Amino acid sequence: MEFISEWLWFFLLLPVAALLGWVVGRRGGKLHSETQVSQLSTTYFRGLNYLLNEQPDKAIELFLHIAELDKDTFETQVALGHLFRRRGEVDRAIRLHQALVQRPGLNDPQRVQALLALGEDYMKSGLLDRAETVFSELVALDLSPLALRHLIAIYQAERDWPKAIENACRYEQATGEPMGKLVAHFECELAERHRAAGDAQLAREAVARAYEADAHAVRAGMLEGRIELESGHPPAAIRSFERVARSDPDYLPEVLPSLLDCYDAVGDLPGARAFLSEMCEHYRGVAPVLALTRMIEREEGVASARAYLATELKNRPSVRGEAALIDLALAEQADHAATLIDLKHITDQLLVRNPSYRCTRCGFGARSHHWQCPSCKEWGSVKPMLNYAVV
Using CA atoms, how far apart are residues 284 and 157, in angstroms rounded to an integer? Predict the structure, then answer.
């Protein structure tokens, strides 16, 4: 960890060193003392040498010395504030950047740079209300994409979804970068809020906006299905849940229990079997196989169900499938029951210890589903694991 930390410092400070080197060169013609120019140059190269030798603390002290020798240079003072912030001295960074913002005679690019640095100081210190004020002023002045990004992060933290949506749309207009996926998640957060408050109509409207932002929004389909199911409309819920499964089969285990309940409610078991057979062709996990096995058990008996499951597990081995096969063997009262009970116990323990969901971005494992990964904060990246899908 120490080695990684040192190299992290190196890559963080090297751009600062380059900036200060440029400042030294640019200021050389303006300083009145050749001795002062020489002192700045010597100090700069000593600092760069410390960086190359992985001695960031000594390098920082020398760069602070450069800034003290050249107090009038705007770029140097901004860089000094960044160094304070990276060292955890956020209060010093705030004071320095506040002074820069208030300095008379700044041109527009300098004012934008100073405001951006001050807003980042406030974010680092957790003063989100002040950071919001600064970034809002900056957006009004320059429509800065980075300031918009910071505002989106602030409104996410505050769970102010309308403002998060507004600024995500402004960011897309300013940069051309698609933000539909993110906006769809924000709209779904609003839909969840309305659903919890018992307002199904407002929840539906938010889901519709989520689809407008991202036509393939899986979360919107899941929400839509649950809203329709809770409103007593199982046929509409079936359409929504099936849309989710066909759009992204990885989420089939999330919708399958509710979908099967809907099929039971409308009495369409042939439709349920046809859909499960379709999913067995497109989904590599064991979830639809287990659901079909239970249907076969009810309609044709344990022996047929066990034979079907044993055949399917040859092509898609699964711990959960093994557990289901053992259950069927026990129900059939086959030989070696004691051995099967032992195997059942071991298999259950394996299932308990393994996560059912994993983030496709950072690998975070979880026992329950999260729309935003608790580890890397990516939206929509936590998905059911194929071998541990629960239905």
Answer: 36
Report yes or no: 286 and 320 within 8 Å, Cβ to Cβ: yes
Q: How far apart are CA 213 and CA 217, in angstroms?
A: 8
The verdict on pTM exceeding 0.85 is no
The values of phi and psi at residue 390, to 5°, are -105, 130
Torsion-angle region of residue 104: left (phi > 0), alpha (psi -120 to 50) or beta? beta
Token reading at 225: 């299905």
Question: How far, in Å, CA of 136 to CA of 170, rounded?
Answer: 12
> What is the full DSSP assignment across 108-143?
HHHHHHHHHHHHHHHHHHT-HHHHHHHHHHHHHHH-
pLDDT digit string (tens) for 199-229?
999 999 999 999 999 999 999 999 999 999 9
What CA–CA distances, in Å, run from 246 to 1, 4, 13, 278, 316? 44, 43, 48, 10, 20
Both structure tokens of 317: 């081995």
Q: Which tokens hold the place of 69? A: 């020798």
Q: In whole angstroms, what separates CA 355 from the centre of its chain?
A: 18
Contact 111, 119 (CB under 8 A): no
Contact 148, 178 (CB under 8 A): no
72-127: per-residue pLDDT in tens?
A: 567 777 777 777 787 777 788 888 787 877 778 778 788 888 888 878 888 888 88
- Non-local CB neighbours of 216 within 8 Å, separated by 6+ positions: 247, 248
| Distances from the Cα of 93 to the Cα of 83, 140, 151, angstroms | 8, 24, 20
Neighbours of 196 (CB within 10 A): 9
Q: Find the Cα–Cα–Cα–Cα dihedral 381, 382, 387, 391, rounded to 10°.
A: -120
| Neighbouring residues of 171: CB distance < 8 A, sequence distance ≥ 6 | 145, 148, 149, 152, 177, 179
Q: What does the H/E/C string look like for 289-338?
A: HHHHHHHHHHHHCHHHHHHHHHHHHHHCCCHHHHHHHHHHHHHCCCCCHH
Q: Does residue 354 sit in helix, strand or coil?
A: coil
Assigned token pair, 234: 């199982």
Question: Which of 111, 101, 64 has the alpha carbon at shortest distance from 83?
Answer: 64
Residue 224 three-state SS: helix
